[in-house]
Amino acid sequence: xxxxxxxxxxxxxxxxxxxxxxxxxxxxxxxxxxxxxxxxxxxxxxxxxxxxxxxxxxxxxxxxxxxxxxxxxxxxxxxxxxxxxxxxxxxxxxxxxxxxxxxxxxxxxxxxxxxxxxxxxxxxxxxxxxxxxxxxxxxxxxxxxxxxxxxxxxxxxxxxxxxxxxxxxxxxxxxxxxxxx
Length: 181
Hints:
Layout: H1 9-19, H2 25-32, H3 36-48, E1 52-57, E2 60-65, H4 81-88
Antiparallel strand pairs: 1-2
Helix pairs in contact: 1-2, 1-3, 2-3
C-alpha cells in the first residue's frame, strides 16, 4: 500500500499552525514528518503567498493565518483559507481577525467533533552505505610531440648543447609531471 496523504506538506503546516500559532519549527517538523529546513521553506512560501504572517514575541515566533485569502489552485480558488481551516477544525477560531467567514460546512449542534487518533510518522529506513568504488584507471598521459630541429645549412655542423647538472631525473615513459590528484 502506498503512503500518501490528501494534503501537501504546505497544507499540513498551515493546518498545524492554525491550531498552535506559537509552535516551534522543530515541533511542526516532528508533527508533519518533515525536516526543520523544509518547514522553514514552507513557512516562507506561505508568507510569500500572503496566507501567513510571522511576528516575534521574545524568542518565539507567532504565526497568524490570513483567512480571507483564497486557496491557490483554480479548483479550490472559490474557497478561503478560513473555510478550509474551519472545515478541518470546526471548533477552532485561531485565525486572524480578518478571517471571520462563515464555516463551509456547519456541524449539527448536538454532534461533537470526533477526535482522530494522532498519526505517528513511520520510522524511515536507515540509508545503506554506498559501496566503495575502485579508483578508475587513467590512461597514461602522452608527452607532446618533439619540435623538429632546424636543418643545418649545407657544410655547417650544429654543435650539441652541453648537458647541465650530472644525472638526469625521471624521463621514463610512464613519468607524469604536474599531477592534479
